[in-house]
Amino acid sequence: MIRIGLRDARAHFSRFVMSIIAIALGVSFVVGSFCFREMMNDQVDQMMGSNTDHDVYVRGTDEKKDDDTDSSSSSMKTYNDIDDTLVDDIKDVKGVKTAEIVYSVSGSLVLVKQDGNAVSTMGSPTMGIGLAKGTWRSAHLTEGRWATNRNEVALHSYAAETSGLKVGDTTKLVYPSGPEDVTVVGVFDTDVSQAGAIILGLAPDVAKDLYQQQTGEIGRTQYIGVYGSGNKGQPLTNDQQRALADRINKALPAGSKATAITGDQLRDEYSQSIKDMLGFIQPLILIFAVIALFVGSFIIANTFSMIVRESMRGYALLRSVGASPMQVFSTVIIQALLLGLVGSAAGIGLGWGMVRLIVFGMARMGTPLSGAGNPSPTDMLVGLLVGVTVTFIGAALPARRAAMAPPIQAMNETVNPEKPVRPRAVTGTIMVVLGVAAWLFCWRIATVDGEPTSVGFLNALADRYGTGWPLGIGAGLIVIGVIVLAPALVRPAGVVLGFLPSLVFRVTGRLAVRNLSRQKRRTANTAAALFVGVAIVSCLSVVAASAKASVAGIVDTGLKSDFAVSSAASGRIPDAAVDAVKQVDGVKSVSTSRMLMNVKYDGKRISGTSFAEQPSLFTDVFAPVTMSGDANKALRDGELVVGETIAKDRGWQVGDTVTMTGERVSVDEEATAKAQADWQAQTQAKVTALQQEAQKLAASGDAAGAQAKAAEAQQAVTDAQNVDPSTLIRTKSETTRATVKVGAIISNSIYRTMVLMNDETAEKLADQQTMFTIQLFIAAKKGTDTEALRKRLVKAVKPYYVLSVLDREDYKSTMSSMVDQILIILYALLALSIVIAIFGIVNTLALSVSERTKEIGLLRAIGTSRAQVRGMLAIEAAIISVFGTLLGLVTGVGAGVVIRAVYGGNGLEVLSIPWDQLGVFLVLSIVVGLLASVQPAGRALRKPVLDAVASE
Predict the structure, then answer these.
(1) For the chain, does the N or the C end have fewer beta carbons within 10 angstroms?
(2) pLDDT band at residue 747 under the 50/70/90 scheme
(3) Which residues, in sequence order, are CB contacts of 463 under 8 Å at separation 6+?
(4) What keywords are assigned to this protein (predicted)?
(5) Euclidean distance between CA atoms 767 and 763, whole angstroms
(6) Is 777:591 a contact under the CB 8 Å cutoff?
(7) Comparing 32-36, 69-73, 215-219, 604-608, which segment has the lowest mean pLDDT?
(8) How many CB atoms within 10 Å of residue 774?
(9) Within 13 Å, how many C-alpha atoms sit on residue 105's CB side?
(10) Residues 538 and 889: beta-carbon distance below 8 Å
(11) How far from chain centre, in Å, is Cα 205?
(12) Sequential DSSP letters for 803-838
């Protein structure tokens, strides 16, 4: 039976081609997702091994808990900051080569290229690190030297290449305070690729100042890095790291709240955190795999259904000579396994090629990766199992049909008429109705205040799980229900969709409609290939169009200001730029939005953001949609203006009193005085000891030794005079507190998850330098020429390189561009669906042509022209394609409407159905059908008429 199965597979191999392609596509995405994940993980491990390469790290002992927040936290644990003077204690430990704090800042610096434009990358940050000789073991100067002051910078080789700068060039570096001239004094490289990050080597004291400005903390740090001397300049082994960490822990002062850990431990923690953050990439790729394999299973089922039908007499003959049903079943399954193996092998190679193509594309876009991306044996085994399993599932039902058909009946040429589709119609209708009911329930949960239904059990589920579960269950029921119901829809759909072709092409149109109705299941399965992809894409298109329309609605109906200024440098706008904008002639008001970090309300953080705003916000920027209270008055009087979502979450009403707490770092005068006194005492003791040694040497007649010791004493005095005063400043973190009332609750979609307060209230909680300006809104004076004002504003912000002046249309376009980026993924899904659908339709028509060889031969014998045969098959393919597309459009648009309604409170206020895009999808489906019919039609016409008529 194995030989028979292999022989049949060889005989039918040409019919397996489309199925092999479908399996290969699905497996390629499975293997590609695993390869890409492993490559990214390897890239992260490489970068962590290079970028956090100290042998030991000293950090805080107390983990910062997030139990006091309403929002989810990162998987990376954070600990209390430690005193930077611990460096002195660590340096004296046996086995310590260097101990220092490497200060770095990210997102607040922008490098200007040689051509005068800002350096921009595809999402990778610009990072400034305080570097000197020995600071970073994995960084190696290839040219020049390290920076020593604010007006110098050393560039990572990739930054130098991207900016077109070399040693000796002068350019601009945009600091948080504004742009300054800097000279490139060095170029350095690192042991591994930095994935497109722009790394700037700053003078250590400059990086320290920037870090302190950004965090508002002086004399405190998260980590102290330690290089050990125990391995001849090479990185310490894990055992050596543990031994050094133990010695450091013994030397750390009691009460320092600090502990030493191995570098390997910190690298593992950082790597795992980043891998968790990148975890969404693999599921995203696997979505494509699921679609490809799901649709491919229909193609496989169609292929084997056709092969089984054609081979039924042969299987009946096997049964009549003693073959058991299981043996007949195995002959079909052997073919399926062979098909799965071939398709999976092709898919593994295609998946590897896909990853290499992604790496090439990312390198061209400025994000070079060096992680290993070759499939592992496990990846290949998973791909092989997936491909074979899907093929087995697709072939199982036809194989069972071949095995269970009675031999006598199977030998009859007219055997096995298609089963009635009424049971499937009933089952599918019930599933669709239940799915629609689930969507209605989901809509009720999202839009109705109070209990959504009169059923206590359902209300309890709604209260506990929210809207996600009925939305997902409804979608699953409707999609599967439509697939089950589709065969019952083939005949009425053929009548409707075939009306025009039958009217225009009376013979070929009617024949095409009749042919489709003869095999309803096959037609429906083929249409399902396009249905799934179109449903997903049309659903997300409705959501994306609604998001863009909602943004446009916010700007058109709510935005009062004439211009907005935004920054490409992590959204931060320098204070000097704000002052420059305020001085522009024709500006009536400038409203700054400053973000507050780590503010708690009644001891808990909100699931949103806190902002400091000016009273001009609601008069000159956005008109408040007030639910209760007076937003204008509240902001002027120092009260809170709370977004609707936050107010509901916390149960706040206008008039409620809220206690806000924050953190402010201030100079600890007493500790600073003590540190200065201790330093002076230590210096004096050192100088005195050296002077006494000099006197003893002089008394013993060693004039040269006495002179050397006297020089050491003088150098100690000079060092003391030149010490950086900031190293002797001690800080303390104090909890700030302010008790304020809720003055207004607003429902503007842009502010629903925000708490707004005026500057005076905000400054009771946070330092000026820790409140980042992320947006400016500018109102023009009455009668001002806005175009001329725009030119003046552009001129005012030009020196800051990263600032953009946006009018109302630009503002809408910028917000909408975020949605457009998502559409790229949607179109990729659509393209995948179309490719597989073409294979499915070609496969179905090819099998249908093979089944109707005699019929087509008779049509040609009685005078049907070659063009009419081509037309008949083209109409069949077009109807299948349009049928699947219409099912997908109806289902997808329905899902999009429900999602828009459910998330209307999160900004999707306007429903917009992109009829033009949906129309393009429909036209595209006709083109797909016509293209799919070319190969089967050519195959049908290549066979001579007499041979076709005589075929069995």
Answers:
(1) C
(2) confident
(3) none
(4) Cell membrane, Membrane, Transmembrane, Transmembrane helix
(5) 6
(6) yes
(7) 69-73
(8) 17
(9) 26
(10) yes
(11) 36
(12) EEEE-HHHHHHHHHHHHHHHHHHHHHHHHHHHHHHH
Residue type, 24: A
Q: Are 691 and 633 in contact (CB under 8 A)?
A: no
Beta bridge partners, 665, equal 733
Tokens of 753: 């998850």
Is 502:810 a contact under the CB 8 Å cutoff? Answer: no
- Is there a contact between 147 and 153 (Cβ–Cβ < 8 Å)? yes
The helix/strand/coil state of 189 is strand
Using alpha carbons, select from 620, 621, 622, 640 the residue that is nearest to residue 630: 640
Q: Is 322 left (phi over 0), alpha (psi -120 to 50) or beta?
A: left
Q: Indicate the pTM of the whole model.
A: 0.67
**pLDDT grade, residue 155 (50/70/90)?**
very high
Specify the pLDDT at position 185.
95
DSSP summary character for residue 402 = H
Place of tokens 């390997």: 264
Is residue 901 within 8 A of residue 857, CB to CB? The reply is no
For residue 77, pLDDT beyond 70: yes
Do the bridges between strand 609-613 and strand 754-758 make them parallel or antiparallel, or are there none, so unpaired?
parallel
Encoded tokens for 163: 């900016």
Report helix, strand or coil for 521.
Answer: helix
Query: Does residue 872 surpass a pLDDT of 80?
Result: yes
**pLDDT of the residue at 723:** 66
Burial track 896-909 (b if 16+ CB lie within 10 A, e otherwise): bbbbbbbbbbebbb
The closest of 289, 357, 390 to 29, measured between CA atoms, is 289
**CA-based R_g, the chain, Å:** 36
Burial of 453 (0-12, 13-18, 19+ CB in 10 A): middle
The domain segmentation of the chain, as residue ranges, is 57-274, 489-560+807-952, 669-729
Task: Give me the helix-helix angle, 866-902 and 853-861, nearest 10°.
Answer: 130
Reduce the DSSP state of residue 352 to 3 states and report it: helix
CA dihedral sign, ordered 472, 475, 480, 485 = positive
The predicted-structure confidence for 419-459, as pLDDT tens digits, reads as follows 788 888 899 999 999 999 988 888 888 777 667 777 777 77
Counting every residue, how long is the chain? Answer: 952
* Cα–Cα distance, 194 to 44 (Å, whole number): 10
Which residue reads 């309803």 in tokens?
520
Phi and psi angles of residue 507, each rounded to the nearest 5 degrees, phi first: -80, -60
Q: How far is CA 383 from CA 9, 36, 346, 888, in A?
A: 22, 14, 10, 29
112 bridge partner residues? 118
Q: How many C-beta atoms lie closer than 10 Å to residue 860's C-beta?
A: 20
User: Using CA atoms, how far apart are residues 856 and 533, in angstroms rounded to an integer?
Assistant: 33
- Structure token pair of residue 239: 């055992």
Q: Cα(840)–Cα(846) distance, rounded to whole angstroms?
A: 10
pLDDT tens digit sequence for 364-421 = 666 666 666 678 888 888 888 888 888 888 888 777 877 776 766 555 544 455 678 8
Show the 3-state SS of 283-314.
Answer: HHHHHHHHHHHHHHHHHHHHHHHHHHHHCHHH
What single letter denotes the amino acid at residue 766? A
CB 768 within 8 A of CB 612: no
Q: For residue 622, what are the β-bridge partners?
A: 559
Distance CA 537, CA 917 (A): 10
